[in-house]
Amino acid sequence: MSSETITCPDRPMLIRILEGKAPPEEGEALAQHVENCPQCSAQILRLREESTPVPLSVPPQLQRPWKAFWMFAATLLIVSIAIYCVVQQVHRP
Ligand SMILES: [Zn+2]
Fold first, then answer.
1. Which keywords does UniProt give here (predicted)?
2. Distance (Å) from CA 41 to ligand 1 centroid
3. H-type helices in the chain, by residue range?
4. Which of 50, 4, 2, 16 is closest to 42 using CA atoms?
5. What is the distance in A from the centroid of ligand 1 to the CA of 53?
6. Distance from the CA of 17 to the center of ligand 1, in angstroms?
7. CB 3 within 8 A of CB 33
8. Which residues contact 30 (CB under 8 A, 6 or more apart)?
9. What does the domain layout of the chain look like in residue ranges?
């Protein structure tokens, strides 16, 4: 009975539920309430939209491949220039 008379959780609590940081017993009751409460589920949806598509900084794992790519491209360029010079010298009369 108590889980059905629960009051709507406030915004910080909803964020905690979203992040799975709400206390287990309370979180379960609140999650159940949110499922059945159109107001809370709408707010959860809004919070989820706000929090997901805005990563403030690109994680380093995503930055490194680009650095490696440019290092690779620069090396390739230098090597091909060197090969070109060698070929030019070989074909010189
Ligand atoms: Zn509610």
1. Membrane, Transmembrane, Transmembrane helix
2. 7
3. 11-19, 24-36, 38-51, 60-90
4. 50
5. 25
6. 13
7. yes
8. 6, 9, 13, 17, 22
9. 1-54, 58-93
How far, in Å, is the centroid of ligand 1 from the Cα of 55? 28
Look up residue 92 and give its two tokens. 């010189």
How far is residue 52's CA from residue 40's CA, in Å, rounded to a whole number?
18
Contact 30/22 with Cβ under 8 angstroms? Answer: yes
Buried residues in 23-46 as b, exposed as e (16+ CB within 10 A) = eeeebebbbebbeebeebeebbee
Q: In angstroms, what is the span from residue 16 Cα to ligand 1's centroid? A: 15
pTM of the entire structure?
0.47
Taking the chain (93 residues) in runs of 10, the rounded mean pLDDT of each run is: 69 87 86 91 88 61 73 94 90 69
